[in-house]
Design goal:
The chain is mainly α. It has helices at about 30-35, 50, 55-65, 70-95, 135-155, 155-180, 185-200, and strands at about 20, 100, 110, 120, 125-130. The chain contains seven helices and five strands; from the N terminus they run βααααββββααα.
Length: about 240
């Protein structure tokens, strides 16, 4: 199946995998390239903060939504949410089309106040081979986003790689379920094959236990009021919050 300009096939996978194309109809949004390099602003109540400081805006939004007791908790959850979306789009495209769209940060517009599928807009669809997925996501997004979060919030590199690995495995599992329900072993096999190659990369290779597929680091969700352990948590029971 050739990659079409509307990425129509992704819609069948659900809203988290779908990607809007073209320019947002309700006005311009910052690109992810701008988000990764935006300067820190304290303009919490400024309606323009989503444009001037998209990452900071998103972290504050997540913090308010989950009543995060610490900034680092909101940073981790915001990071995992965005990374999960990028993996879903890229791996879904590779599994269905055997191609991936060029998701260069300068081509992706991001609404940090939005939700899937309406928070990301790909302004131009350019087809790349499926095996470019590592470069597209890992080098294009994981690296600059992690660098920004480490510098600004002092986030541990191991935690961020754990988020990335967990998000990638989540996309694989969802594609496996979708493929099994529709009799599409080709989709399952492509997703699995690409995941094996992706997890061989340093960073991702140490993100999950290869036998149990549980994380080797914690995303900190247990620290959210009312939160618990994720399905792939490295802990058997939540640590004390003291």
């Amino acid at each position: 199946m050739a990659l079409d300009t509307d990425l129509t096939a992704l819609r069948a996978l659900g809203g988290f995998f779908a990607l809007r194309t073209g320019e947002p109809p309700y006005g311009p949004l910052p690109t992810l390239a701008q988000a990764y390099t935006a300067r820190h602003t304290e303009a919490e109540g400024d309606p323009c903060a989503a444009f001037a400081d998209p990452v900071g805006f998103r972290v504050r939004k997540v913090a308010d939504s989950v009543r995060a007791p610490e900034t680092r908790v909101a940073v981790s959850l915001a990071h995992q949410g965005l990374v999960a979306r990028l993996w879903a789009v890229a791996l879904g495209s590779a599994a269905l089309y055997d191609q991936v769209p060029d998701l260069a940060p300068g081509l992706l517009r991001w609404d940090p106040d939005g939700a899937a599928p309406d928070e990301l807009w790909l302004t131009e669809v350019r087809a790349l081979p499926a095996d470019a997925i590592g470069e597209v996501v890992r080098e294009g997004h994981l690296a600059p986003l992690a660098a920004a979060l480490r510098e600004r919030f002092r986030m541990p590199e191991r935690l961020l790689w754990g988020n990335a690995g967990s998000a990638l495995m989540g996309a694989v599992r969802q594609l496996e379920r979708w493929a099994a329900a529709r009799g599409r072993p080709d989709v399952r096999d492509r997703a699995r094959g690409l995941a094996v190659d992706l997890f061989a990369h340093p960073g991702l290779s140490d993100a999950l236990d290869p036998v149990t597929l549980r994380r080797r680091s914690c995303c900190l969700y247990y620290r959210v009021p009312g939160g618990g352990l994720c399905g792939d948590c490295c802990f058997d029971r939540a640590p004390s919050r003291d």
